[in-house]
Automatic annotation (TrEMBL):
Record flagged with keyword Transport: no
Cross-referenced InterPro entries: Amidohydro_3, Metal-dep_hydrolase_composite, Metal_Hydrolase, Metallo-hydrolase_Enzymes
Record's keyword terms, sorted: Hydrolase, Metal-binding
Gene3D superfamilies cross-referenced by the UniProt entry: Metal-dependent hydrolases (3.20.20.140), Urease, subunit C, domain 1 (2.30.40.10)
Enzyme Commission number(s): 3.5.4.1
Pfam entry (one): Amidohydro_3
Single GO molecular function: cytosine deaminase activity
Full protein name: Cytosine deaminase
Lineage of the organism: Bacteria, Pseudomonadati, Pseudomonadota, Betaproteobacteria, Burkholderiales
């Protein structure tokens, strides 16, 4: 006797009419017409069942702070950084915890059950670190929160930042972060990469650096990050986030850079919603898109994930915790409209970030954790197209969020009473 069976599921890998059996919080069986019984059964009715969404890049210490202490009038990256500097002295631990927990509620409702959040360590009080460590424990039963020690003002540029970062790691922060392009000089940026990678190697930790978030094609710290990854044996544990300067680099240099990243086992994390709005601000026309070279990185075998980055904070006044919105923007910006490319965009908010974060037991296979999302869509492409309703969100086989199906009623002569948004062309 199983605890739960999901019947007639479509899976992200293309399999259809599959049953998923769950026992003791784990997936026990994945097969057609599962010959078993369960205390509870759910008919997925041909809808897509996927492992949960994963956000590989977020800033939870700033989330939902929109309007504090004022609104970012220009909508630019630099005004956002200045705003964050104004806000930091006003932060309280209670407010940080309250906003972060509220965002985690949003995430769960959207089927987003794993988040890697950067947390600023340049404030010597480390209020945000303490707050998010507390939140990490509060949400652990229903959401995996991985924290990155992030020196927002530069680990060498900001007084005491390196000591603060080490203290944050001592307190239990999971990942070493950095921002080499924000150091005073290119040389200091490269030095910060070496220093931080050595720190991660000494402590056996992962690395995730804001890297080359710039329109400057000469911002090339990802090259140093890949080189240090090889030198220190960190392959498979390092990610470069943003990498927007790659959009402006000449093709010859990129033809050498991408194989270097691949051979070093360095992953790339793009943030489509934010990259497209913050980059290219010095351009008139033609205006650069700003997002890194996702199709080329994927074609070379570099793991690529998409992150949400910001929701209602000093840098971005929009957002709702919907990783399908992120995939939707990434698909359009990167012109990834081929069938396999669109599926890769779905993987960029599910399987790929799970791999980069090193999540244990992620997937739809026997032995995996029974963390699943039932979507009102039949396949990944349709899920992105519709930003599909999360009909049910499961954690360890238990429903922790649900939504009614999206349906519009019509009152038109000679037309159906309801609109079926899942209908495809060709009468299907």
């Amino acid at each position: 006797m199983l605890d739960l069976i999901l019947r007639h599921c479509n899976l992200p890998d293309g399999r259809t009419d599959i049953d998923i059996g769950i026992a003791a919080g784990r997936i026990a069986a994945v097969e057609p017409a599962l010959a078993a019984h369960a205390a509870d059964e759910i008919d997925a009715a041909g809808h897509l069942v996927t492992p949960p969404f994963v956000d590989a890049h977020f800033h939870m210490d700033a989330t939902l702070s929109y309007g504090l202490p004022r609104v970012n009038q220009s909508g630019t990256l630099l005004e956002g950084i200045a705003l964050w500097g104004e806000l930091k002295p006003m932060l309280t631990q209670d407010a940080l915890v309250e906003r972060a927990l509220a965002y985690c509620d949003w995430a769960v409702a959207r089927g987003l059950l794993a988040i890697r959040s950067h947390v600023d360590v340049c404030d010597p009080r480390l209020l945000a670190v303490e707050a998010l460590l507390h939140v990490r424990e509060r949400v652990r039963p229903y959401l995996d929160l991985q924290l990155v020690a992030f020196p927002q003002d530069g680990v060498l540029r900001a007084p005491g930042a390196l000591d603060n970062l080490k203290r944050a790691l001592d307190m239990g922060v999971d990942v070493v972060g950095g921002i080499p392009h924000f150091e005073r000089t290119m040389a200091q940026g490269a030095e910060s990469v070496r220093l931080l990678c050595e720190l991660a190697a000494d402590r056996g930790l992962r690395v995730d650096m804001h890297c080359d978030e710039s329109d400057d094609p000469l911002s090339r710290h990802i090259e140093t990050l890949a080189s240090e990854t090889v030198r220190l044996g960190l392959q498979g544990r390092v990610a470069g986030s943003h990498l927007t300067s790659m959009h402006s680099m000449d093709n010859y240099y990129v033809s050498k850079l991408i194989p270097l990243m691949r051979d070093a086992g360095v992953a790339a994390i793009a943030n489509p919603l934010i990259n497209i709005t913050l980059q290219g601000r010095h351009d008139t026309y033609p205006r650069r898109r700003g997002m890194t070279r996702v199709p080329e990185l994927l074609a070379a075998g570099v793991p690529v994930a998409f992150g949400h980055d910001c929701v209602m904070d000093p840098w971005y006044s929009l957002g709702s915790g919907d990783m399908l919105e992120v995939a939707h923007m990434g698909l359009h910006v990167a012109q990834m409209t081929g069938q396999e490319a669109m599926r890769a965009c779905f993987a960029a908010v599910t399987a790929m970030p799970a791999q980069i974060l090193g999540l244990d037991g992620y997937g739809v296979a026997p032995g995996c954790r029974a963390d699943l999302v039932l979507l009102q869509a039949r396949d990944p492409v349709e899920a992105i197209r519709l930003r599909a309703t999360r009909l049910r969100v499961l954690r360890a086989g238990k429903t922790i969020a649900s939504m009614p199906p999206a349906m519009a009623a019509l009152d038109l002569p000679g037309r159906p009473a309801q609109v079926d948004f899942l209908r495809r062309g060709g009468g299907q």
